[in-house]
Design brief:
Layout lengths: L2 E6 L14 E5 L5 E2 L12 E11 L17 E3 H5 L8 E2 L2 H16 L16 E4 L7 E2 L4 H6 L21 E6 L14 E10 L5 E12 L11 E3 L17 E8 L16 H4 L1 H15 L3 E8 H14 L2 E7 L14 E8 L3 E10 H12 L5 H8 L4 E9 L14 E8 L7 H21 L4 E6 L7 H8 L29 E3 L13 H4 L13 E2 L4 E2 L2 E6 L3 E7 L4 H5 L16 E7 L7
Parallel strand pairs: 13-14, 19-20
Antiparallel strand pairs: 1-2, 2-3, 4-9, 4-10, 5-6, 5-7, 7-8, 10-11, 12-25, 13-26, 14-16, 15-16, 17-18, 18-19, 20-24, 21-24, 22-23, 25-26
Helix pairs in contact: 7-8, 9-10
C-alpha cells in the first residue's frame, strides 16, 4: 500500500512571497521509494496523497526584528512611527541591535521629512519597548534607559523546533490544499502547519498515520531602501517615484545575479541559509529588477532552467521580451546541463523591437586562433588554457515611437547592446584580455556595417586599471602594462594589435565630471584615479569593481545613473549576498539619450 515515509522542508524560515515546497518521501505499493506526487486524478493502488496547509491564529501578535528577521522584536523605533516609515523597518530585537544598526537606520529618518520629533526630545524617545504580553502595542512612555533596563526578562524562542500540541487560544486555519504554499502578508508572525495524508480514493478517508511538520514563524521579505536615480548634469527632473521625467531617453540595467550553482554555504556562510536559498533569492531579485523599470536589462549568471522557468515568464508579465545565450559546456560539468549559466538580455516590447542577434562563443574563437597561430604540438595545451565556455550575447534593437516602429527607414533608430561575462580566473590575465579583445573586434565589424550607437555591458571580472579595462576605456593597452607579462601562448603579440576604434566611455565615470554639492557623496563612492565605482562586487574576501556599462560617446549621452551603495551599509551583513541584496554583485543602471553622431576615432 502507498505510505509516506518522511516529510521535510528544505528552507529553515518561511518568507512572504517565497514558495514552500516540502520534500515528501513515499513508499509505493511495489515497495520502491520515490518522491513523485500521487494526485487524486492518478491514484496508485486505490490511494492518493492529500496535502493541507494551516496557519495558527492566536491573540498574541508577534513582530520580527528588521535586522535579524529570525529574532522576535522587543523594541520599536518611535522615530519611524512618527515619520511614517514602513512599520516592518522599525522593529529591533535588542538595544544592542538597535544601536549597532543606528548608523544605517538613521538614513531612513534622513529621507523622511517628518523624522524629527516635534518636541525636540528625539534622543530621549528614540525607541519604545514592544509589548509581547498579548496586545502587540507599543509602550511609548518608556525612555531609552528605562527600556534597556526592562529587557532582561527575555522572550520565548520565536522559532520552536516543534510544537507538539495546540495551546489555549490558538486556532488552526486552513490556507492551502496543494503540495506547495506561498506565504502571504497575513501569515507574518505565525507558524504554518503542513499535513500530508494517504487517502482512500473511494471512501475519501485517511489511511494510516498523517505526516505533519511545523514551520518557523513567517517573516516579511526584507526590503532594502530604494536606490535613487541621480541626474548627472544636475538638470534632470525626478517624478514622485524618483525616476527621470524626460522624453527621448532610455535606461539600461546590468546585473550579475549570482547563479544558484555557485552559492555554496562554505563560500557565503555569512549569509543566512534562508536568504541564500534560490526560492527566496529569485523573488528578491525579481522585485529588485522589476523595481528599476529599466528599458533594457542585461543579466549575467542566469541558469538555463531559471531563464526558461522563471525569469522569461515573469519578466514577460511586466512587458519584457527576452533573449538568452547559455555558456558552452566543453569544460567538464558535474551535474545537470540545465544548471549551466549564461547571459540574458531583456527589453521592453513597447520601447524596442528585436532586429538581430549575434552569439559569441569564445570557445569557437579559441579553436580558430589555435588552428591559425599555435603549433600543432602545443594545440592541446593552448585549448586547455583558452577554452573556458564564456560567451557574449549581442542584440540589435530598433527604437519604437509611440509603441510603433518607425515607417521611414531613414529615420530608424537602431541600438546595439552587448552583454557578456568574462572568465573569472585571476591567473588567466591573457585569456581575459583576449576575450575582451575578441568581443570588441566583433563589435567593430557591426559598427563598420551600420552607424549605430553601442552599449557594452556585463561582468568583465577585471578591475579598473587592468589591461581589459584599459582596452575598453582607452582603446589600447600600454605595452608596458604588467598584465601583458602573462602570455604563455603569445596570443597577445604584437601588443600593437590590442586596439579598437570604438569611442567607448564608462557610464559611471560621468559622476566624476559633475559639479555641485549634491554630487559629493556620489563622488566619494568612486575611485579617484580611475573614476570607476569603488566596488560592484563585495564578498568577505574581495571588494572591487568588476561590472561596467560602456557606451559609444559619439552617439550617446549619460543623463542619469543609479546611485552606488556605500560599503559600510553592506558590511552590517558582513558582505553580499545578504537578506536585503540577493547577489554578491550590485546592479548598475544608466539612463542615456541619443545624440547626433560625431566622427569616430
Amino acid at each position: 500500500m502507498l505510505s509516506v515515509l518522511r516529510v521535510h522542508l528544505p528552507s529553515d524560515i518561511p518568507i512572504v512571497g517565497c514558495e514552500l515546497t516540502p520534500y515528501v518521501l513515499l513508499r509505493r505499493p511495489d515497495k520502491t521509494v520515490a518522491t513523485d506526487d500521487v494526485p487524486e486524478t492518478a491514484p496508485l493502488d486505490g490511494h492518493f496523497l492529500r496535502y493541507t496547509w494551516y496557519r495558527v491564529q492566536s491573540d498574541k501578535k508577534v513582530a520580527v526584528c528588521s535586522v535579524h528577521p529570525s529574532e522576535q522584536a522587543t523594541l520599536q523605533c518611535l522615530g519611524c512611527v512618527k515619520a511614517k516609515i514602513p512599520v516592518a523597518k522599525s522593529y529591533h530585537c535588542t538595544p544592542k541591535c538597535f544601536s549597532d544598526a543606528w548608523q544605517h537606520h538613521r538614513v531612513l529618518h534622513d529621507r523622511a521629512a517628518s523624522a524629527v520629533n516635534e518636541n525636540g526630545n528625539e534622543e530621549e524617545e528614540l525607541f519604545g519597548r514592544f509589548n509581547n504580553s498579548g496586545s502587540g502595542s507599543i509602550n511609548t512612555s518608556l525612555s531609552a534607559s528605562a527600556s534597556s533596563a526592562s529587557l532582561t526578562n527575555g522572550s520565548a524562542p520565536v522559532y520552536p523546533v516543534a510544537v507538539t500540541q495546540r495551546s489555549g487560544g490558538e486556532t488552526w486555519f486552513e490556507v492551502g490544499r496543494s503540495k506547495t504554499y506561498t506565504p502571504t502578508a497575513d501569515d507574518i508572525g505565525h507558524v504554518l502547519k503542513f499535513e500530508c495524508a494517504v487517502v482512500d480514493v473511494e471512501t475519501k478517508l485517511t489511511v494510516g498515520h498523517v505526516n505533519t511538520l511545523l514551520t518557523s514563524r513567517v517573516i516579511p521579505a526584507p526590503s532594502p531602501s530604494p536606490r535613487q536615480l541621480i541626474p548627472v548634469d544636475g538638470m534632470g527632473h525626478l517624478d514622485a517615484d524618483g525616476h527621470i521625467t524626460s522624453s527621448g531617453t532610455f535606461t539600461v540595467l546590468s546585473y550579475n545575479i549570482l547563479s544558484d550553482a555557485y552559492t555554496s554555504n562554505d563560500l557565503y556562510n555569512y549569509c543566512p541559509s534562508w536568504a541564500l536559498s534560490w526560492p527566496y533569492r529569485r523573488q528578491n531579485l525579481l522585485r529588485e529588477i522589476v523595481g528599476y523599470r529599466a528599458d533594457i536589462i542585461c543579466l549575467q549568471e542566469v541558469q538555463s532552467d531559471h531563464y526558461e522557468e522563471f525569469f522569461s515568464p515573469e519578466l514577460d508579465k511586466h512587458g519584457y521580451y527576452g533573449l538568452y545565450k547559455r555558456k558552452t559546456n566543453e569544460v567538464v560539468y558535474n551535474g545537470n546541463i540545465d544548471t549551466i549559466d549564461g547571459c540574458a538580455t531583456f527589453f521592453r516590447r513597447d520601447r524596442f523591437s528585436h532586429v538581430k542577434k549575434y552569439e559569441v562563443e569564445f570557445n569557437k574563437a579559441a579553436q580558430s586562433l589555435t588552428d591559425a597561430v599555435i603549433p600543432t604540438t602545443q594545440k592541446k595545451t593552448a585549448l586547455n588554457r583558452l577554452v573556458k565556455d564564456n560567451v557574449a550575447l549581442i542584440v540589435v534593437l530598433e527604437a519604437k515611437v509611440n509603441n510603433q516602429p518607425v515607417d521611414n527607414p531613414g529615420k530608424r533608430q537602431l541600438l546595439c547592446v552587448a552583454n557578456t561575462h568574462v572568465n573569472v580566473h585571476q591567473d588567466l590575465k591573457d585569456v581575459k584580455l583576449w576575450q575582451v579583445h575578441t568581443l570588441l573586434k566583433g563589435l567593430e565589424k557591426i559598427a563598420a556595417s551600420a552607424d549605430i550607437p553601442m552599449l557594452v555591458c556585463g561582468d568583465f571580472n577585471s578591475v579598473p586599471g587592468s589591461a581589459p579595462h584599459a582596452l575598453l576605456a582607452m582603446g589600447k593597452v600600454d605595452p608596458s602594462h604588467p598584465d601583458l607579462a602573462v602570455d604563455p601562448l603569445n596570443i597577445l603579440r604584437p601588443h600593437s594589435k590590442l586596439v579598437h576604434q570604438l569611442p567607448l566611455v564608462s557610464a559611471y565615470s560621468s559622476f566624476a565630471r559633475t559639479v555641485g554639492l549634491g554630487f559629493e557623496q556620489h563622488k566619494r563612492r568612486l575611485d579617484n584615479t580611475t573614476n570607476e565605482p569603488l566596488f560592484t562586487n563585495v564578498t568577505r574576501d574581495f571588494i572591487g569593481s568588476l561590472d561596467y556599462i560602456f557606451y559609444t560617446a559619439d552617439s550617446l549621452v549619460v543623463e542619469s545613473l543609479l546611485e552606488l551603495l556605500d560599503e559600510e551599509s553592506l558590511r552590517k551583513d558582513t558582505a553580499l549576498p545578504s537578506p536585503e541584496w540577493s547577489s554578491d554583485h550590485i546592479a548598475l543602471l544608466a539612463e542615456f539619450r541619443c545624440c547626433k553622431n560625431r566622427s569616430r576615432r
